[in-house]
Amino acid sequence: MKIFFKKALPHIGALFFFLIIVIIYFFPVFEGKVLQQHDVSQFEGMAQEVLEYGEKTGWTGSMFSGMPTYQITGYEKGINFIDKIKVGLMSVMDPNSAGPIFWLLITSYIMFLFFGTNVFIAILGSIAIALSSYNIIIIEAGHINKLWALAFTPLLLAGFIGTIQKKYAWGFLLFTFGLVFQLLANHFQITYYTGLFCIIMFIGFLFSCLKEKSYKHLLNTSGIFLLGIIFSLGVNINNLYLTNELAQESIRGQSELTSTESSVQEPVSSGLDKDYAFSFSYGKAETLTLLIPNLMGGESGGYLGEDSHLYKTLKAQGAQVGKTVQTYTYWGTQPFTSGPVYFGAIICLLFVFSFFVVTNKSKWWMLGACIFFIFLSWGRNFESFNDFMFYHFPYYNKFRTVSMALVIPGIIFPILSVMALTEIIKGNINKETLQKSLIYSVSIVGGICLILWLIPDTFFNFQSLMDANTGMPDWYLSALMEDRKALLQSDAFRSLVYVLLASALIYWFVKSKNQQKTGIQISILITILVLCDLWQIDKRYLNSDKFMSKRTYKEQRIKKSVADEEILKDKTQSYRVLNLNNPFNETSTSYFHKSIGGYHAAKLRRYQELIEHQITKEMGYITDAFRNNPTQAGIVEALSHCSSLNMLNTKYIIYNPEQSPIINPYHDGNAWFVDSFYFVNNANEEMAALNSLNPLKTAVLDKKFESDLKGFNFAPDSTASIELIKYTPDKLEYKSSSQKDGLIVFSEIYYPHGWKAYVDGKQVTISRADWILRTIPVGAGQHEIVMEFDHDGVKICGIIITTFSGLLILIFVLLIGLSLYKSIREDKKDRE
Q: In this structure, is the dihedral angle defined by the CA atoms of residues 175, 179, 185 and 191, taken in order, positive or negative?
């Protein structure tokens, strides 16, 4: 055991160092402060109804009139032992800020140890990955699932590398646990990119094995990867199954509507609309932010100080300004950005250096992967490549924000940098080759910085395509362009300094007589330089000023308005609220009420199309009334023309949150018997029917549901009634009464999976009416009707999850036990 602890001591030191880094950077968190994170705040609103009921349900009525909770709070049966471990790991530190960075440092360190690096270089590589600006910037945005998925990516890659190195047992465990944890983080775009990277690397490994005729190793490695994937899928089968189901029904699935606007059309996407998917495309020139962070002005809405051209110009124009001016500093191709993707000047230098000094042929596969992912990040800026990917590559069109693809180069750059430093310090390269390689690398990387510092006007005009839409006068734009240029030059010079400092340290090593001692010294010094470099840039975007006390956060985030207070006095079982203030990009309304709007990247496609074709139009009627005829009669008149909002049981309208809401007298209630119904041939006809439909009187159904009502003896009944008796998110109970067989339309969103309807305990089929609502036929008499969300597939998945997660824990315990046993035996032999 003494040998074991002696070997473990340097790694304990590395762990302690990572802990210090995280505590210092996120010190406000350890003081009890919190971040105002957009997506985290939105989550609080979308999840509130489910949390109120104290258990995970498969459905919530609080957003978009109703939607599955699969991608909100999750929906699962059975026991997932691995998920419990993940929850424990996440609870070590604040899971919304410091936690994922801490674990990303640790998993990166583990990965670099498999590359055969020393402790100091492994620490350097871990810092380079974890503190890359993108990982810090997405914390403020609240993209925490994404960061947790990234946090476990190096663990997966460590297993991948270990297996290739014939460390089969540990390779299997690390690969499997890395993939399991990454999938549990529930950000499939990161997993998709990681999978593509592994496929590229496996192809390189395959060619190597075939060339060397290492068929047994190839079979063993392939078998381990396959087994790891099977276990990972087994542990995550529920989420994968439900996510795939939701994808078909959400905006990531294909629409049933067909366009008739143009005879020339792009190929039909089976996922997202291409413009939406490619909206956040990194610019080709913008890729140089990997080396020079402020190349494109930094973040949208950046700040300029008293020394800036714009500040001085505004003062000269007589404008009242404070200590800084917030303006359109960013001039890249994205609609907006919270900051650039910056890998670090020293990391970029070492990346280039690696192609001169690293002998391992895998560097070329990594270079190919790097270029591939950079091409993906360009999106619409490289359509000839990305259109093919979007329309033909499996599942690729399910994802948006293609600039995210840069997370893989964000791992490859440090890997190759670490490989380069390792080659240098091990003395595997003669001094003459090393010196020439250093000159070439500095000439390339330092040369780019030098040129852009001295003559940036030669390459850029510092204008954005969106400048024309801002209404800026010429004098303002002229001063702003000068400041954009100054921001680029300042960071180009800054990167040049870091490149030269790192180069000087490497040159010192080349000339050193005691290279073993100097190697450790430059490892430490370059690590410090990389830490300082990334730390300075990260603090531009996430610093102590962004944190606030928990009390202040709650006061700002969760605050009942006058309208909310008034609506909450209504104790009716269920009704909906429309907030006219940006309703489809907020969840504050969902926190308190069942909202017509909401915020989610996987809202149901049919509901989104109802928004686009009907609800937006009807909202226009209401807002026009508030502006042009703001009397009670005028507003009520507008509401009488809002048939889609009325059939969604929109009882309250919020126009000014600090005033009483408008009560809609035309809301249709929770459910009703219709006087008639008819079928249409397709989705286009069904949507068009809503333009003139009176939902209380007539129902329109797609003909695909015709068989559901076959043999039904429908007859209108003016005395028929139905009442909602009890509401919970996943179960609704009604009582109905009618003298004749009737058709009931429910003001509940139709979803073809999970929902079951029972009339007096007997299950009946749920059909779809009026584009988005549920309907069932009911016989004459009094009935108890129950609608319950009870997904059979989830029950089966629960059994699979429990089995696979339990087996994986057992394998892990056995291997740990075997390793400890071997360690004890070795220690005993050494003493003998």
A: positive
Q: What is the DSSP letter of 660?
A: P
Strand partners, 381: none
For residue 377, what are the contacts with CB-CB under 8 A and spacing of at least 6? 281, 282, 287, 402, 403, 404, 405, 406
Q: Supply the DSSP symbol for 614.
A: I
Q: Which two tokens stand for residue 284?
A: 């080709």
- What pTM was estimated for this model as a whole? 0.91
Q: What are phi and psi of 129, to 5 degrees?
A: -75, -50
Place of tokens 């008796």: 725
Cβ proximity of 424 and 433 under 8 Å: no
Classify 832 as helix, strand or coil: coil
Dist CA 417 CA 410 (whole Å): 11
Model pLDDT, residue 567: 96
Tokens of residue 277, six digits: 């998917």
Q: What are phi and psi of 732, to 5 degrees?
A: -125, 135
Q: Give per-residue burial for 523-550: e unless 16+ CB within 10 Å, then b.
A: bebbbebbbebbeebbebbbeeebbbee
- φ and ψ of 759, to 5 deg: -110, 115
Q: Amino acid identity, residue 755?
A: W
Output the six-digit token pair for 26: 């996120």
CA distance 577 to 594: 6
Q: Which residue has the tokens 């303002």?
A: 476
Residue 558's CB is within 10 A of a number of other CB atoms, namely 14
Nearest residue to 40 (alpha-carbon basis) of 86, 94, 83, 89: 94
Residue bearing tokens 């009634």: 721
Give the number of other Cβ atoms within 10 Å of residue 562's Cβ. Answer: 14
Alpha carbon distance 163, 484 (integer Å): 48
The rounded distance, in Å, linking the Cα atoms of 171 and 160 is 6
Sign of the alpha-carbon torsion through 146, 152, 158, 159:
negative
What is the CA 80 to chain-centroid distance, rounded? 23
- Which residues lie below 8 Å from residue 126, measured CB to CB, with a gap of 6+? 14, 18, 104, 105, 106, 108, 109, 112
Stretch (H or E) spanning 496: helix 474-511
Count of C-beta atoms within a 10 Å radius of residue 455: 10
Name the packing angle between helices 215-235 and 188-212 (round to 10°): 160
Which residue type is seen at 35? L
Two structure tokens written together for 578? 């429309």
Q: What is the pLDDT of residue 831?
A: 64
φ/ψ of 85, rounded to 5, equals -65, -45
Rounded distance between C-alpha atoms, residue 292 and residue 312, angstroms: 26
C-alpha of 562 from chain center: 34
CA-nearest of 192, 188, 239, 271 to 68 is: 239
CA 75 to chain centre: 19
Give 228: exposed, middle or buried? Use CB within 10 Å, 0-12, 13-18, 19+.
Answer: buried
Contact 785, 735 (CB under 8 A): yes
pLDDT for the residue 263:
46
Q: Which of 241, 273, 262, 265 is nearest to 605 (CA)?
A: 273
Spans of the chain, pLDDT less than 50 = 262-264
